[in-house]
Every structure is written in structure tokens, then in C-alpha cells.
């Protein structure tokens, strides 16, 4: 299925010069939403996955669905100060700034196989930070998957040691 017609460009968001890829048209269409979930799940065929990590905030949309279908646990990675329990953190760079991501210190056990999911791979800073958090807890990142990759930002270079799968590239 061609998902491109369900992605809307928003110019100058969140700041001038940035073209934001809005996935809400895909989410509001039940058929496209279902097919996107199935396609993301298809990237994991024949993989044993113990946990699916969803990245704040749009990664929270498909990651729990993937976890349920895979018989895996769902783990949230959030921006600093949003998780209630003990956390570990990792700084990161993104297309339009910097930040810190956190994960609960007991979210992943040593040796667990982890799928990292987010909506967009842009500069790769967020994805790299999430992978580092997983590895700090002893997990093994078996795949990073995304709805969209902005290839012109070369984010895949920052996660080149991991398997990467995407539905759409721009």
C-alpha cells in the first residue's frame, strides 16, 4: 500500500525552515492505519522480541499495538521529567534542538530482545539515544522501525549498527 497520500506536510513547524511530516491523516483513516500497523509488524516476521520501546510521543501510537501482536511488553521512553519511577537518561540532538530522554530503570532486563519504534527517523539523535538506553539496561536492540525516514538528514548513519526498517522515505 502507498502510505504517502496519508502524510501531510506542515511548513515552518515547529520552527521556520522545518517541514513537519504530519501522520494524523493516516491515523484518522481506519484502513490506512490498520495497513500501516500490519506493514510495521511485517518487518519483524520470524523475530523473537521481548519488549517494544515506543518513543515519546508519536511512537506511543504503533508501539503498543506491535507489542500486543508480538506477545511482548511495551516500554515507554519519555522526555526528561515525565516518568514517575527511577530512571536512567541519555542526552540527544534532534533536527531543531537538544533534549534528554529517560526510561524506567527496571523497564528492560539483561538479555531481552528489543524492538525500537518511532514515527520519524530524522537526524537519528533520538533513535540513537533510545538504543543507548536499551543497551545501558542490558537489552539487545534487534530492530529500529519507523513510519517515515527523512533521508536528507542522514539519521540512518547514527544507527547504522542496528537493523532499520521504514515504511516511507523522503
Secondary structure elements and their pairing?
Layout: E1 8-11, E2 19-22, H1 24-28, H2 30-42, E3 51-55, H3 59-70, E4 73-79, E5 87-94, E6 97-104, E7 113-121, H4 125-136, E8 140-149, E9 164-169
Short recap of the structure:
This is Adenine phosphoribosyltransferase. 25% of the residues lie in helices and 36% in strands.
Write a concise keyword list for the protein shown above.
alpha/beta, single chain, 25% helix
Strand order within the widest beta sheet = 5-6-4-3-7-8-9
Gyration radius over CA: 15 Å
**String of helices and strands:** EEHHEHEEEEHEE
Total beta-strand segments: 9
Q: The CATH topology is what?
A: Rossmann fold
Strand content: 35-45%
Structural class: alpha/beta
Largest sheet: 7 strands, mixed
As a percent range, the share of helical residues equals 10-25%
Q: Kindly state the mean pLDDT as a whole number?
A: 96
Can you tell me the CATH architecture?
3-Layer(aba) Sandwich
CATH class: Alpha Beta
Structural overview:
Its EC number is 2.4.2.7. It is an enzyme of class 2 (transferase). It comes from Flagellimonas chongwuensis. The chain is an alpha/beta fold. The protein has a single domain (45-169), classed as Rossmann fold (3-Layer(aba) Sandwich), CATH 3.40.50.2020. It contains four helices and nine strands, in the order ββααβαββββαββ. β1 and β2 form a beta hairpin. The protein is globular, with a radius of gyration of 15 Å. The model has no long low-confidence stretch (mean pLDDT 96).
Amino acid at each position: 500500500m502507498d502510505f504517502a497520500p496519508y502524510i501531510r506536510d506542515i511548513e515552518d513547524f515547529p520552527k521556520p525552515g522545518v517541514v513537519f511530516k504530519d501522520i494524523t491523516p493516516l491515523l484518522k483513516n481506519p484502513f490506512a492505519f490498520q495497513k500501516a500497523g500490519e506493514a510495521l509488524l511485517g518487518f519483524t516476521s520470524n523475530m523473537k522480541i521481548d519488549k517494544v520501546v515506543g518513543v515519546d510521543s508519536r511512537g506511543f501510537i504503533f508501539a503498543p499495538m506491535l507489542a500486543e501482536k508480538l506477545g511482548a511488553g511495551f516500554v515507554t521512553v519519555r522526555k526528561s521529567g515525565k516518568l514517575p519511577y527511577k530512571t536512567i537518561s541519555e542526552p540527544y540532538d534532534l533536527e531543531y534542538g537538544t533534549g534528554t530522554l529517560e526510561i524506567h530503570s527496571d523497564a528492560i532486563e539483561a538479555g531481552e530482545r528489543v524492538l525500537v519504534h518511532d514515527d520519524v527517523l530524522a537526524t537519528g539523535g533520538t533513535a540513537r539515544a533510545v538504543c543507548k538506553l536499551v543497551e545501558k539496561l542490558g537489552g539487545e536492540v534487534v530492530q529500529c522501525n519507523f513510519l517515515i525516514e527523512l533521508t536528507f538528514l542522514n539519521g540512518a548513519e547514527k544507527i547504522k549498527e542496528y537493523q532499520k526498517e521504514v515504511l516511507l522515505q523522503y
